[in-house]
Amino acid sequence: MIYYFKKISNKLNFNLKHYLKQIPAVEDFYWPLGPSPSFNLWARFWLCNIKQNNYNNSHLLHNINTIIPKKSILINLTPQIYNQIAPLSKRSINNNNNQITIKYNLKYEIDFLSKVDLHQNPIESMQIRILGVIKDQIICSKIIYGNLTGVSSLSQISNIIKLNIKNAKTQGLIIDKIEINHIHPTLELFSMNDHKYQYIFSTLSKSDIEIAKSIKASVDKYSLVMKAIIPSGVNYSFSI
Fold first, then answer.
1. Cβ proximity of 141 and 164 under 8 Å
2. Is 238 helix (H, G, I), strand (E, B) or coil?
């Protein structure tokens, strides 16, 4: 696991030992509903926040402690908690004019999550699915395992999709849509401190949406869905 942290820390321009020392301990927070996360998943959660905000050595400690103040109450988000925020059937996010839909994880998403050890090795993983117009006619690629912050390149995704479209046609499948499914191996939390609260989500990134739009250009006659599957029990999807 430390290997992955070393690899990513070089890209993010901060010192690994300094970073690991500054991560607040899980025990620095209250987890009234439990369970508290494993160290690896906890560290990956903080690393993801550092990457998104371009933190560096000079202000790493300050920003880590202001994302979520120590002694905060933390609750892992679940579908039940999501539903208290807003019914998932009606819930969507407008991200720079891109509509992102939130749904519960069902059998496929749950099975996919079970194939990754999120507690010991929380890496991103991806699988392409070609769905036919007839229910249960599905072509799945093999699972691609990535690293802490990414899983594949645009060219690799394009090649996998082309290969699976060919396989689908060979089998006589009439294609309805293409799914690019990938796991965001991180936490989603409700945080409360001094009567102030926030929700921390792990929705589709700007990069995810840009990749979906680029892929769509090469498979224009098919519907395309980019989906991020979250261990909290939901998934975020962008359809184009």
1. yes
2. strand
- Residue whose C-alpha is closest to residue 5's, from 15, 21, 16: 16
Q: For the residues of 155-215, what is the DSSP string, one character each?
A: HHHHHHHHHHHHHHHHTT--EEEEEEEEE--S--EEEEETTEEEEE-----HHHHHHHHHH
Closest-CA residue to 165 (of 111, 85, 221): 221
Angstrom distances, CA of residue 32 to CA of 76, 81, 226:
10, 14, 34
76-112 pLDDT, tens digit each: 988 888 877 766 655 777 777 889 998 999 999 999 9
| Residue range 84-186+202-239 in CATH 3.30.1120 | no
* pLDDT tens by residue, 106-152: 999 999 999 988 877 888 899 999 999 988 899 999 999 887 667 78
- Whether 26 and 39 have beta carbons less than 8 Å apart is answered as yes
Nearest one of 87, 109, 110, 238 to 177, comparing CA atoms:
238
H helical segments located in 36-121? 39-53, 60-67, 79-85, 107-114
**Residues carrying CATH 3.40.140, the chain:** 84-186+202-239
Query: Predicted confidence band at 201 (pLDDT cuts at 50, 70, 90)?
Result: confident
Q: How many residues in the chain?
A: 240
Helix axes 206-218, 154-170, angle to 10 degrees: 40
Q: Model-level pTM?
A: 0.84
- What is the Cα 158 distance to its own chain's centre? 20
How far, in Å, CA of 155 to CA of 151, rounded? 12
